[in-house]
Design goal:
It is a single chain. The longest helix has 22 residues. It is globular and about 50 Å long. It is built from 16 helices and no strands. The protein has a single domain, classed as Hypothetical protein af1432 (Orthogonal Bundle), CATH 1.10.3210.
Length: 269
């Protein structure tokens, strides 16, 4: 990773005090829904934004969620924490991915669709996996924001877009221009924010699960690779992106039925 890119990461603000309160409650296995609700309630703007996400039809709740306690109860602490981290991250790192030719609304929709896919799919297989997969699915592509910032600040936009046009590969273009791919950058940002080491490792291996050093990370990274493949950068699950995801499900020898049900629920929304 180039020194100047590391400096970009070092300049990212730390997450706000409200997140530290939420993380303290979340890390306590004895904490209750009421404890999480109280920690969230200290930040009314955060609550309003969480309720906006929580009421998305993609999560499949048939009635409106009107207060934060109800949101925590229905979505669970894992998902609500991921909503809060996503909101705080967007405040610390404003989204600009123009060097990639990616639309901001598409970027945001991709993140939420990935999260909804994880919740509706993996949440039905192993709810405990959401502790890592829920925030990872939301924040997976944050490295592209940091790389975009680096490219713009150093006048490399034309060079990057030329390489991207020639290689048709985000990873190859990132490595040539920045010396690192976006998932390594995302993992370094998570380390900067003092996230759990397991979350840092999971994001680092999101594109190459087989390279992970332990089986737990390897298995979770497979789910992450599938959902990021299933959703394109317009936030859509296209025929081609789903076909690519199905190839991965077959390669990883995972059951497709629950994935299909999750896709159907999101498409119906």
């Amino acid at each position: 990773m180039k020194k100047e890119l590391v400096e970009e990461i070092d300049q990212i603000p730390m997450l706000p005090e409200s997140i530290l309160r939420i993380e303290k409650v979340y890390a306590n296995p004895e904490s209750s829904i009421a404890d999480m609700t109280e920690a969230l309630s200290s930040d009314p703007l955060m609550v309003a934004n969480i309720l906006k996400i929580a009421n998305s039809p993609m999560y499949g709740f048939s009635r409106a969620i009107n207060n934060i306690g109800q949101a925590v109860s229905l979505h669970g602490k894992d998902s609500i924490r991921s909503f809060a981290l996503n909101i705080a991250a967007k405040e610390c790192v404003p989204i600009n991915v123009s060097p990639y030719g990616i639309n901001v609304n598409g970027y945001i929709k991709k993140a939420q669709t990935q999260n909804a896919l994880i919740a509706n799919w993996v949440g039905k297989i192993d709810r405990s996996a959401l502790a890592l997969l829920a925030p990872a699915s939301f924040l997976l592509e944050i490295g592209k924001i940091i790389i975009s910032q680096y490219i713009i600040n150093h006048g490399l936009k034309d060079s990057f877009q030329t390489v991207l046009a020639n290689t048709k590969s985000y990873d190859k273009s990132e490595l040539e221009i920045c010396g690192s791919c976006s998932y390594d950058v995302a993992a370094t940002v998570f380390f900067h924010w003092n996230f759990d080491a397991d979350l840092v490792h999971l994001v680092r291996y999101a594109d190459n699960p087989e390279d992970a050093l332990d089986e737990d990370t390897k298995n979770l990274a497979k789910y992450l690779k599938i959902v990021k493949t299933a959703v394109d950068f317009s936030g859509e699950m296209t025929k081609q992106s789903l076909a690519d995801a199905y190839d991965l499900i077959e390669e990883f020898e995972l059951n497709r039925d629950l994935f299909d049900r999750a896709v159907e629920k999101i498409e119906a929304a």
